[in-house]
Design brief:
The chain is α/β, with parallel strands linked by helices. The protein folds into four domains: 78 residues, no CATH class; 139 residues, no CATH class; 237 residues, no CATH class; 252 residues, P-loop containing nucleotide triphosphate hydrolases (Rossmann fold, 3-Layer(aba) Sandwich). Helix content is 60%, strand content 9%. Strands 5-12-11-6-10-7-9-8 form an eight-stranded mixed sheet, with helices on both faces. Strands 2-3-1-4 form a four-stranded antiparallel sheet. The two termini are 58 Å apart. The relative contact order is 0.10.
């Protein structure tokens, strides 16, 4: 029921609301709105004054896709710039990773220990520990966790620029964290880009050591053999054969190393590709076993091997023509191979998702390298086998020396080849750049970025005002009390008048001025009571003249006694002989207004204890009389509903022009409902911002009986300023004494 009333109240307010209604609502709640707004303003000012300064440092990084080392051109250059946005998004996730934050945390801890200036830090300090001369560092895990929330990493829209932003109460710390973040990411990124060439370098370094040891062992064995057998010289034919076979054997072993490197790299890339797209990995494997490609690679390897054999035995004059002849054939096969690879390459990369196109291209490149190394190793193995047969045909007396010499020569040449490859791998590793470039390092800020104190104060003022308005509207939503005459008229109830509650006067209208019509006849409330008097007189045109008037209310303390006394005074000022009867036999108050004793009064006369003349008392105002309640009886309702009461009212009606009955609240007891059937007119007094609408409606229902005495509602304690400003202005102008009126000239 309460919820329904609230909803109805809000619906009615919204349906009939206008700008004026909202302004009226604000004016009615101006004091709490101002107080809440000031509170918000004061809180925001206090916060702005005491807020800690926050410094912001920012470093900018330019990201580009890995291009390989600067000594090599990419095999597939036309596919080097796809999926750039996705690539940068992936790199941002790497920047936010635990690994990068761990590197930054280690660097911060080291820096803190080296510079030994705790006052230059704030975020990484443990503020839970309070010591006189010492500030402790957070644990490493806590720093890593802290960096996740304190470091912002974002891509500039439409650019390959990533900004790392750090906020800290310490300007030095903010710049340090931003720069350490960039450095840690660059280090991690460079290690990742160099991973493949680093693996090759490490493999060659191991081979280099092994071949060096083999060479030393072979040289020792050769020396021991020569000293033991006294053989130190081979024939020219044997020496030439050893040089040739050692060359090819060294090439074969070098090809084997290349084959091993290519195989390891290919397996690593295939494993990564298989995890992302097994279907594509299987497709690439089928491509690698394509017979035509294998045949072309084998033919190229065979021609290159035969070229080396031919050049090894040819005279200087023949070498040039042989080189041109073989190069022409090899280039023709390579052109065919490249055309075939282009066809496969287009098909494979067209079917590859954008995020793994780069990986697919690398797998394809390594697959080609691996097959070429395999074919080369196979052909060199055949050539070495042929020379092995020739070598075994040497005289037995020199065969052992030849074998040892061959071993030394072969291992020496292989060692030189491995050393050369190792040095190339070193250069290759160092020449492989990262794909990160620092555009702008973080510099120590000199001015704080936060807080914006002016903005904080402005927001506090706006929020305070918003909360104040919200309070007003929420209060209005849940407030089911009568506020303006419109609230009464919206319920189709007649409004007789409204008695003002105007600042500057009500402070003086205390107990002494409760009878305002007598004390201040020129006051605005006095004029309102005269308006009430007029409307009562004309409320029943064409009917019997109104002589008896009942004044009641919905609930206690709504001002019915004050209204009764002042209404009687207004009739007395109009030369009407008026009597006010205190018919509230439960909590009477008329005697308090006139500052007399309650008895003898109405009930004393009713029970024959005093005479009629003794209960009629004259007030300080001419033509105004009153009758107090007298002794409180145990049965008020029976007394007021008795025939004797009706006779008593008829007697008063015959003797006085106007009889006003001050009765108890109609909701609380039935006294007023009984009396309303005995009088000419009944008035319901409601108090602004106090009387609930549903109580008023219920009271009107009780008073609206067949007798038809109910003539309307009187709104008491209504604020003209908050509700009807223009009424207040005109009332004030016409009701004040002439001597107080302004003598300003009116411009025309």
């Amino acid at each position: 029921m309460i919820s329904e009333n609230l909803n109805n109240n809000m619906r009615e307010f919204e349906e009939g609301s206008s700008l004026k209604d909202y302004i009226t609502l604000i004016r009615q709640n101006l004091t709490p709105i101002v107080l809440i707004t000031l509170t918000g303003l004061i809180v925001s000012i206090f916060y702005a004054i005491n807020a800690r300064d926050i410094y912001e440092a920012k470093t900018s990084l330019k990201l580009q896709k890995p291009q390989g080392n600067i000594l090599e051109a990419p095999l597939l250059p036309e596919f080097s710039d796809f999926g750039n946005d996705r690539f940068i998004a992936n790199e941002i996730e790497v920047l936010k990773s635990y690994s990068v934050r761990e590197l930054v945390a280690n660097a911060l801890i080291d820096t803190f220990k080296v510079i030994n200036q705790p006052d230059s830090f704030y975020l990484i300090l443990n503020h839970d520990i309070e010591k006189a001369n010492d500030k402790e560092l957070l644990e490493k895990y806590s720093i890593i966790k802290l960096l996740k929330s304190k470091v912002s990493i974002e891509q500039k829209r439409g650019l390959d620029i990533v900004e790392i932003t750090v906020e800290s109460p310490s300007a030095f710390e903010a710049a340090l964290i931003a720069n350490e973040y960039a450095h840690a990411y660059m280090t991690l990124n460079l290690d990742f880009n160099r991973q493949q060439v680093t693996n090759v370098k490490n493999f060659l370094a191991k081979q280099r050591v092994e071949k060096q040891n083999e060479l030393l062992n072979a040289e020792v064995k050769l020396k021991n053999f020569q000293e033991k057998n006294g053989l130190f010289q081979l024939s020219e034919q044997a020496q030439a054969l050893i040089n040739q076979i050692s060359d090819f054997e060294a090439q074969k072993n070098s090809a084997k190393i290349d084959l091993t490197i290519a195989k390891n790299s290919l397996e690593q890339l295939k494993t990564e590709l298989k995890q992302q797209d097994p279907r594509l990995n299987a497709y690439l494997e089928s491509f690698a076993t394509e017979p035509y490609l294998q045949t072309l690679q084998e033919q190229i390897a065979e021609l290159e091997a035969r070229k080396d054999v031919a050049l090894a035995t040819a005279s200087p004059e023949e070498k040039l023509s042989l080189t041109v002849e073989y190069d022409k054939k090899i280039q023709s096969l390579k052109n065919k191979l490249e055309e075939k690879i282009k066809v496969y390459k287009a098909g494979i990369l067209a079917a590859s998702p954008d995020e793994i196109k780069d990986l697919t291209a690398k797998v394809l490149e390594e697959e080609i390298k691996y097959k070429a190394a395999k074919a080369s190793y196979k052909e060199l193995s055949k050539i070495v086998a042929e020379y092995e047969n020739k070598f075994n045909e040497l005289p037995k007396s020199t065969l052992d020396l030849a074998r040892l010499t061959r071993k030394v020569t072969t291992v020496e040449k292989l060692y030189l080849l491995v050393e050369e490859k190792y040095q190339e791998a070193l250069i290759n590793e160092q020449s492989t750049p990262g794909n990160v470039q620092v555009i702008d390092i973080a510099r120590r800020p000199y001015e704080p970025a936060k807080p914006n104190r002016k903005l904080i104060v402005l927001i506090g003022l706006i929020l305070g005002g918003g909360l104040g308005l919200t309070f007003a509207f929420v209060k209005n939503y849940f407030d089911n009390t009568i506020k303006t005459p419109d609230d009464i008229q919206n319920k189709n109830i007649n409004v007789l008048a409204w008695i003002p509650n105007i600042g500057g006067i009500d402070e003086r209208v205390n107990k002494e001025f409760e009878f305002i019509v007598a004390k201040r006849p020129d006051a605005i409330p006095s004029e309102a009571f005269r308006a009430l008097r007029t409307r009562i007189q004309f409320s029943k045109l064409g009917k019997d003249k109104i002589k008896t008037i009942l004044v009641t209310s919905s609930a206690p303390k709504e001002g019915k006694t004050t209204v009764s006394v002042n209404l009687g005074g207004s009739f007395a000022l109009a030369n009407k002989k008026v009597v006010i009867l205190d018919a509230d036999l439960r909590k009477p108050r008329v005697h308090n207004v006139f500052k007399v004793k309650r008895f003898p009064g109405f009930t004393d006369y009713f029970f024959g204890q005093v005479s009629y003349e003794e209960i009629i008392r004259k007030s300080e105002m001419d033509n105004l009389y009153y009758i107090t309640a007298g002794t409180i009886p145990p049965n008020p309702s029976e007394i007021l509903g008795s025939p004797e009461m009706e006779e008593f009212l008829n007697k008063l009606r015959n003797e006085f022009d106007i009889v006003i009955l001050d009765s108890p609240p109609v909701i609380a007891v039935t006294d007023s409902e009984i009396l309303s059937r005995l009088v000419d007119a009944s008035i319901l007094v409601v108090s602004a911002n106090n009387t609930e609408i549903d109580l008023m409606q219920k009271s009107v229902e009780l008073l609206s009986h067949d007798g038809g005495s109910f003539i309307g509602v009187l709104l008491n304690r209504f604020s003209y300023k908050s509700g009807y400003g223009s009424y207040y202005k005109y009332y004030y102008y016409y009701s004040r004494p002439k001597g107080d009126q302004s003598k300003k000239k009116i411009k025309t």
